[in-house]
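Field reference: sequence -> structure
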Amino acid sequence: MKRRNTQSSFAEPRQALESYLESLLSEVPEYSTEDDDPALDATPHVVITEVAPADVQESVNDQVEEQPAALEDSFPAEQPVIAEAQVLLKEESSVDGGQNLPPELGKPGWAVNRFECLLFNVSGLKLAVPLIELGGVLTIPEKGLTPLFGQAKWFMGLLPAHGGRMIRVVDTALWVMPDRYDEEQRKTMKYVILIEGSDWGLGCHDVAEAITLGEQEVRWRSERSKRPWLAGTVIDHMCAIMDVGTMSKMLNADDKNYQPKLANR
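Structure field:
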């Protein structure tokens, strides 16, 4: 009898966490760019403190090697338990930016045999981007990003990169889960994940490690007419895999001032 009570005491909070993340990742309403707040866009609201100076764009391998060991321990102690519930994602999630994009079925083209991913953290969510779609990682400078007026709320600003490029930084938390968004979290984003072949970058709080996965280790989504950027989930590493190539297309479709030539440089 005592064992059953103990198991029940663990099951109840676990079920609550699973329910929370299921709601967080599966019931997110569509984020519309039509109701942007001009006052928000007109104010340089990105204030980054206590971060390292911006470096030029680094190679993926150098970035992984140079990340301080503290990053690996930067997640809250309870995060692995919370993140494990990500495997319960529903297929009927409702984020559908870039509505004109055709639905993509099954595994993405880069998911053949074994592939590498970089893990990073956004507002408590552990996400993974395949290295083949990763253009590098940059640090947000202490002075913050350069604001650009007339943009969507999820647009954080511009970040200079190697070769004179200007990276358009996305508030990943606001774009992915607007109903759970806390504006204070934007101020603590430290890094930008660059999307290969585009001028888009994903703001994040921490960069963790590079991992190698086999295609059989991933629970791939069989249908992606909704939330097409979410490719699947990984049980062992308790994370969600992003198809950032598709996400880049969605951002282009939703961006008010997108210029195709910028992404072709």
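Note: The two ends are 67 Å apart (CA to CA).
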